[in-house]
Design brief:
By secondary structure, this protein is an alpha/beta fold. It is globular. One of its GO terms (molecular function) is 1-acylglycerol-3-phosphate O-acyltransferase activity.
Length: 274
Amino acid sequence: MCVLTFSFISKKISYSEPSKLSFHLKFFVYYFLCSLLAFVIWPLFLFRPRNVKNSRLAATILKHITKLYDLKWELRGADILSEERGAVVVSNHQSSLDILGLFNIWEVADKLTAVAKREVMYVFPFGFAAYLAGVIYIDRNDPKRAREQLNMTSDVMVKEKTKIWLFPEGTRNKDYRSLLPFKKGAFHMAVAAQVPIIPVVFSPYYFINNKQGIFNKGHVIIQCLEPISTKGLGPEDIDGLVTRVRDAMSTVYKELTKEVITNLPSDYPHTTVG
């Protein structure tokens, strides 16, 4: 029975024709494997709780889920991400697959943690394992409190030379044609700590579409942009900083969109909406 079930799931995952069942099954397997592996490894995190090195260990294991889906994550500008320094990393947010991409480049960034909404913490065992791995949870329903929580991480960034990864769009963007407006929390944190902002752009996920049941193999380019200094900036400079970073990321996003779409076969059923 188990063999038949595994065979059925494997066929559905590898099946390339659009299918609602196949689409949702692929995401279910993704979430299930992340939870299963989190359940296996979280006890190891008890030896050094809340240490970002736990995150790197988890990423080293979880990144292999990529092989099931035949996804290629191409990191550009790795030297920018690998430099040892405290920094705020901001990237666009298209899908929960962003986390899988993050797992695949985590070892390059080395000392890195991420910010997630508080609700994730209660998703056992993944949320608990992430907490022990140093992930920072914030309450998005209370912006003032969320900003205070982010500002309290300044010491970690500066003293431990740790990078903190945030998605300033605040939610998953299903429209692959442009970026959503940016929230300011990440920028307040960078200015308060006087650390650079490293913009990172994921090319569009042209290979997934919920309504059409599309989830094909794909190629994602992860482009690191040059760091933007916050030295000497204050709260009054936040709006201009947000605009500067978002404009730079939007320009690169459009360039990457053109690149990945141009390289597709003419009959490829790519999508502009997730």
